[in-house]
């Protein structure tokens, strides 16, 4: 049931790294299920040019991950997974399964991505324009967030050989990072963590409440609106980096860090997202609603 999320730039060698990692798990007598974006029925590299097609692709990947997490195998999600909020959704699926979890980041330079793209068969290549667009959209993992931990960053370059285990002071040495077939993928560390690491546990965001209170939707709408109003008023006199206290939340979960001025439409967009998510997993009282919304805002206000 363990979940490994692979995230990175387009044409960065992610699938090669996943294949090497799957082989390592096989040697450790662990069965792997690899979920790849190109296994989607109507997949095309051009899907990333259209928001609706890309959304359908992400929904399919999320569904496949959730279904396979119920089986006794290691699930590796091999795709761009470049949206921070989407990685959070996959993290929640792992929490509900109470399993181990990690993230592998593969983000070589733009030049290396274009070079690797040229190595692909012609029918599997991205266009240069799509690569450049996806590089601009990419939201880099940040270990400050619990759903990006533990994070293993694989360095990719063009060298057709592995880096030496010991690098001396000889400045003439070739320090180009290795190509995907030769890169250090931290396979021993990843296998050790996935097999023996700390399992995720459910919390308020993933536990299912059998029956929602009859006034739940009213409380949900009112509480989230009150939080938005508090933030709009507090930010008028706040300084950057200050923690804004939210009334009604429990101690330790009652502050939103002020990073920049937020508009009402921006806060309402996040409020609607939280409301829609909460309808699927009702919370039992007002304090839990406010705690959950504060946590959601801290994760998404960057």
UniProtKB/TrEMBL annotation:
Q: GO:BP terms for this protein?
A: tRNA wobble uridine modification
Specify the domain of life of the species encoding this protein: Eukaryota
Q: Name one Pfam family in it.
A: KTI12
Keywords, alphabetical: ATP-binding, Nucleotide-binding
Give the residue spans that cross the bilayer. none
InterPro entries, per database record: KTI12/PSTK, P-loop_NTPase
Check the record and name the Gene3D superfamilies matching this protein.
P-loop containing nucleotide triphosphate hydrolases (3.40.50.300)
User: What GO molecular function annotations does the UniProt record carry, in alphabetical order?
Assistant: ATP binding
According to its UniProt record, which protein family does this protein belong to? Belongs to the KTI12 family.
- What name does UniProt use for this protein? Protein KTI12 homolog
């Amino acid at each position: 049931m363990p979940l490994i999320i692979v995230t990175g730039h387009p044409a960065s060698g992610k699938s090669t790294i996943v294949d090497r990692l799957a082989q390592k798990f096989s040697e450790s007598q662990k069965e792997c299920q690899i979920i790849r974006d190109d296994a989607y029925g109507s997949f095309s590299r051009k899907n990333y040019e259209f928001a609706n097609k890309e959304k359908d692709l992400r929904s399919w990947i999320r569904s496949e991950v959730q279904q396979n997490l119920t089986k006794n195998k290691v699930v590796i999600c091999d795709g761009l997974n470049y949206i921070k909020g989407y990685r959070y959704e996959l993290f929640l699926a792992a929490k509900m399964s109470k399993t181990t979890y990690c993230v592998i980041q593969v983000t070589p330079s733009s030049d290396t991505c274009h070079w690797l793209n040229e190595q692909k068969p012609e029918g599997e290549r991205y266009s240069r324009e799509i690569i450049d667009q996806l590089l601009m959209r990419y939201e880099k993992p940040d270990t400050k967030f619990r759903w990006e931990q533990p994070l293993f960053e694989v360095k990719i370059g063009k060298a057709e050989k592995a880096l030496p285990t010991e690098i001396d002071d000889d400045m003439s040495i070739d320090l180009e990072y290795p190509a995907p077939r030769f890169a250090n993928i931290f396979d021993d560390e990843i296998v050790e963590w996935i097999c023996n690491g700390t399992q995720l546990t459910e919390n308020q965001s993933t536990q299912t409440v059998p029956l929602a209170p009859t006034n739940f939707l009213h409380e949900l709408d009112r509480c989230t609106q009150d939080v938005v109003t508090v933030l709009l008023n507090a930010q008028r006199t706040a300084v950057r980096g200050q923690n804004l206290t939210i009334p009604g939340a429990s101690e330790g979960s009652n502050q939103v860090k002020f990073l920049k001025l937020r508009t009402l439409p921006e806060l309402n967009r996040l409020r609607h997202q939280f409301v829609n998510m909460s309808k699927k997993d009702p919370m039992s009282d007002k304090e839990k609603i406010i705690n959950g919304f504060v946590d959601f805002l801290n994760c998404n206000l960057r």
